[in-house]
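Bumping with the actual sequence this time:
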Amino acid sequence: MKTNNNIITGIAVSFMLLIGTISASATSAPESLTGNSQTLLGQYQITELEPETVNNETMRKFQLDYENGVAPVTIYLSERRNCREYIVRSKVMEVQYVCNKKGFGAAPVSSRNSLYPEQTNKMFLSSEALSYQEKITEGEVDLQKALGLIACYYPSLLKNIQNLAKITQN
């Protein structure tokens, strides 16, 4: 009988430790993704924030900070069955990157997700660069790769990257 109690106690303690570990990891600070943008903006860091409801849809939310950036860029992730849309918004423009079976690339923000007037985007968004980024890569990409690609490609969509940079080129 004593052996059965010890086994039950051991199982209960192990179960409580497992639950405690899962709880601690669920509440710990989110991991961040870092890299070099290979642009004037330098190193970047992407951190996941609390989800946000936009147009009655709860989206994952990320903050993209550049070493030489004047303000953070916000990335909202809308996940659908066969497609992921990353709405990328700075203080001066917005664009979306779409990932599906065909590939990953940039496009204008859909009207349902757009916050800025079309004229604002036209002032800052390079339509030529946008056309080059229509298909950055073929096939599906995972979340981390997509976020890294956004951090590296997004700055080149600006007509003048200095709209996001806190330093000037010589």
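The tokens above came from a reply further down the thread. The chain has two domains: 1-29, 32-163.
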